[in-house]
Amino acid sequence: MCTRDVLRLFATFALVTALAGSAAAQAPPSDEPEGGQAAPAGTRQAALEQEQAAKVPNLTPYKPNKVEAYFERFDAVLAGGTPRWHPFFESAYSGGGFTLGVGKISYLGAYNYIDVRGSYTITGYKRAEAEFVAPRLFNRRGHFSLLGGWRDATQVGFYGIGADTSVDDRSNYRFKQPYGSALLTVFPTRRFLMLRGGVEYSRWNQEPGEGSSPSVETIYTPATLPGLGSEVTYLHTQGTIGLDGRTSPGYSRRGAFLGATLHDYNDRDSAFGFQMAEYEGIAHLPILRETWVLSFRARVQTAFDKDDQQTPFFMLPALGGGSSLRGYSSWRFRDKNSLLLSAEWRIMVNRYLDMAFFYDAGKVAARTSDLDFDGLKDDYGFGLRFHGPFATPLRVELAHSRESSIRFIFSAGPSF
Amino acid sequence: MSISISSRRTRRAVALILSIGAVSLFTTGAGTQGPRFYPDDPISREPESQDASKAAPYEQSQMYELMFNLFVTSGYKPSGLRAKNINTIDEVPDSSWFTNRIGSKPVTADEITKGPVIGAAPDPSKWVLIREKTSGAHPGFTATDAKGETWFLEFDPPKFPEGATGAVAIATKIFWALGYNQVESFLTTFDTKNVTIDPKATVRRPNGKRTRFTHDDMNVILEGVHRNPDGSYRVIAGRLLPGKVLGGYQYAGTRSDDPNDLVPHQHRRELRALRVFGAWTNLTDLKAANSIDTLITENGKTIVKHYLQDVGSTFGMCNDFHEWDLSYEYFYEGPPSRKRFFTLGFGLSPWQTVDYVEYPSVGKFEGKVFDPRKWRPQTPTTAYMEMRDDDAFWAARRIAAFTDDLIRAAVHTGEFSDPKAEQYLADVLIQRREKIKSVYLTAVNPIVNPALDSKGLTFENVAVSGGVAQDAVSYRASWMTFDNATGATKPLSETQSSTTTIPAPAGLPSSGFVAVDIAADSAAYPTWKQPVRAFFRSEGGSWKLVGLERMPDKPEANARAGQKPSK
Description:
Chain A is mainly β and about 425 residues long.
């Protein structure tokens, strides 16, 4: 019996005992409240007043228990605050495995803040960065981010270039990258139309890979694999135009998104400069009051060499991993062009949990004209998504493909 | 001496016995030695005799309450105990919680239209914003009007023009008539041309600091609400409550800092009855934050007054996102979740197929599929779980007292621009009223208003008079003398009738107390065989009703009474 139960029993016992001691003398009936005067003895009112008087010596202020006190912090966040310390599950690079990390937010003003964060994966991927965020520019139409950091991906998979590579041909490479970027997102009409522009300065140091697979330089040479062993410094600029009619990019049961992004990677040494175009469309179609949602995504990425420069192998469009072809390893397919098609049948279990069956198909190709529906690599699977009205903090999926009987996917974001 | 109570069953039994003892506070005498009835029974007002000025503000964590109610309270096993704040004739006395209005005395359409309003309406020719809105999900401000009075302003979401504001306007009238303390609310306008911002006004920022309230802060709110074609905004203005705000009341336990708060809130009938009133009006958001305690001084005494503050989540109003299951399921419920999981969503729940005639000012509100027993708030409260059929019967009588005209008068205060929406909302309320009557007026023995005089015993079968049941084949009365000091009864005889007048037996004493068990024989309603026991006291040559017990404490039998469907 817990202390609270004991106290409750004693309190109730005292109440009954006190009642038993109250007088039972007869007095004229009275239905009227007594105002400031005590009720005549032997009346119901007197008995009640006696009990109220008996409580006076035992009055105590409300004391929240420890759990409730903890939840009060959540309330503060919901009321508009932001937690100073937060988990950070983004690894240095896709394919790093289970990731743990933490960040700390420090406010520089009412809304602007700096988030210093870092993460580490079971395969030794490391990421450390600081981001300045100004979320309310241009009368709340703009969002600005200034990011600087360093990351180390120790064993990124490389299976060769093209769609016909074998999973057995995996080799690993490592890269270390210091980076600094600025990204400005503007919603001129507050909703639907989205414009984004950014600039990044970074250096990609490609090194021999770790892990059980052979390192990439043991199989390829710089002549057969552009960018192998290189140290490339990019000035990367990008621009996006998008139409976003979803409830939220983090979780939506209806609406659509269309976007096009152009990237320019300018190599300081004019050896590995290239451009890339990315087109993406997403649609969520609710059925029967959002009991089910049919969600579709199509994405095309195309890289263009600049003049006589080459696109390094580690910057080629790629497929594979928890956010593209989920039944395949991260970075499983690489080439100049990629096509990704995903369809999901999402089923609402309750307000906080969706389940989904998904099917992904995609291919990479050397030429844009080869991005057709022939020879698509596909997978299918099942997943659970724990979500709120606007975000998906946890996505757990099982995916199957011809190359993997089962792949487990844990993600702190939506599939699309 | 040490006392060890090891068995869970034993602990529960002891707690139950002691709790039953505590029931005697309002309905029976002082333990085993006192009389069953005091001279002033039945009391019409619950006293607040002690100074409560030491009661301190506290706002319970909303997230904690949400989680606790979803995952703990939802599994709460009802005690089966009678409500503890009822008087000896099974009624709720007036108190700082509740005032008997409709169902206890005549209420006119004019009174309903006025509702809780005492003072003048706000003067919208000038608004000075002094703070952000501090409670409720719908966007709004705290502002002073041209007369300098403080108001809480709430707007309509873009998808529900006139909806949120109309819901508050109407629901405050209905819940006032039902007996709850309500905030004085007025529909008025908010025009930015008439708005200034108090230089001292602040707003809490994400960095945790309060800084000056700006026009941009105002615009953040206004961009997310419905705007009238002329650029103004329709708002519902709630008058600042008098006294010191203490925070919301909880639906279980008592305030440890209020000496007058003796009855655990889950055993207050008016709080249990919110399960029925909530079902009628679709008041889905029953969290503590939508109530408010204030410290006020009345008759020279400082007491805590309890308000059902925010009744805006009524009718079809919701927060827009993914709320189709509202009023059919808690925010989380295991069984329907499992059903959808294992059937891939094909195991449909009623909310997935129910037809709505959706008016923007009304939302998802209907009366055809509505089942009062299956209605769900967003999260259960302990009082909600404790509701028994006699509590529901009490509530249903009050709802039944709303005539069609009174309902239409209340709905008219929503000032909907679409007369069809107004008519639809009233029609649905009438439809839901009838369903509640059918379910709850018939679930227990529906005999009310027993009176004893020289002609015999007369009473009313409120299920029959309410038009939701056929009359009983016969009524039986088992007469007893009653010793008020000892509680002992001595059988006299039994009489019966096919009408609601039963002759008194020969040899009925002319003084003291008599008790009579009144049962009804109805093949359609076997529960009517459970007699209502009435107690009469001889006063000046006539008999006065001093006691009425519709359902005794039956912890085991009634343990799930509030949940299982009855006939």
